[in-house]
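Translate sequence into structure tokens.
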Amino acid sequence: MTELRINGSRLWTSLMDLAQIGATDKGGVKRLALTDLDRQGRDLVVQWAQEAGLSITVDKIGNVFMRREGRNPSLPPIVTGSHIDTQPTGGKFDGNYGVLAGLEVVRTLNDLNIKTEAPIEVAFWTNEEGSRFVPVMMGSGVFCGAFSLETAYAARDVDGKSVGEELARIGYQGEQTPGEHPIGAYFETHIEQGPVLEDEDKVIGVVPAVMGLSWYDCTVEGMEAHAGPTPMHLRRDALQVATTIMQETVAIANRYPPYGRGTVGMVQVFPNSRNVIPGRVKFSIDLRNVNDELLNTMHEEMTAFIQRTVSETGLKIQLERVSYYPPCPFHPDCVGAVRKAAATLGYSTMDVVSGAGHDAIYVARLAPAGMIFVPCKDGISHNEIEDARPDHLEAGCNVLLHAMLERAGRATG
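Result follows.
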């Protein structure tokens, strides 16, 4: 068993072939959820699965499960997967790698005529990216009950097209009720989407948890006035007050290392004129950390700072929390299986807490789950120049193979 390896060149070829669907001039992929290109991508992956002897199940939100039967079909399947929808300026590996690594595991088991005790399944989830429809991680979110199928169906894109309509149009509105599909354990293999593994020269990231996040909209209201005649001490400058809150966002994150994160990524200034003192500023705040206690502390410090700023400046400031995902620790057995597999195969490793959301965090609400990270060039993702080394992708898939075999069991009878 320790000598088992996947076919790295076959995995790479599959990734490059799938990347042709929605290929962009800069070498990336634009394959938005539930578009005709998404249908083509789904059809190709399903075709490959059927050629590998897998049976196909599609649920009502369009999640696809591709099953390789085990010796004991009554056991819940050991599942791996990710997503194949992309960002508008996406890359070849985000999500796609996790799905095709699962398919390569199945192909390798077929090549070597290895039968598992429990069934093995490869899944891809609908609208993980959330770039066409919100909420993000839609398919896995409906699957675990985070929000209803009706809510998902009603979501519309900028052209007014709904998820329900588009699922039916592309032919992937299945019959199975989301969440009724059993899962014994779940593994997701992914590029890191950050620079840590590359910076530390490690091949495998063992992922013990995913950070929780709090998203806010903050609005500061002052008063517009002429930039020339208005003395500095008489101004009610919404932007200058807003910048103190932006700086505090970063300061709060720096107070809670190593996993504290604080980001302001969107700013709207009114009236946005060079010779008018801004009267209103609306901006986003993104706070993240690895456990609820730290994230709640960061939240409390932010609200306290804003209250003090209101008292000191007299300006009206509104802070609205618009989204919250709790931190997600992964199951020790799945984390241990990844760690053991990497050690068996001789790969260098380190623990990497994920700062990005993944379908695994929703699946983890229903079944033991774990993740495997591999490096990506310069830590770049959600970008057409996203890249990863073939040997690193092969290594992550080898770890996936061994971790899944540990959970599924090699059939002896």
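Note: DSSP finds twelve helices and 17 strands in the chain.
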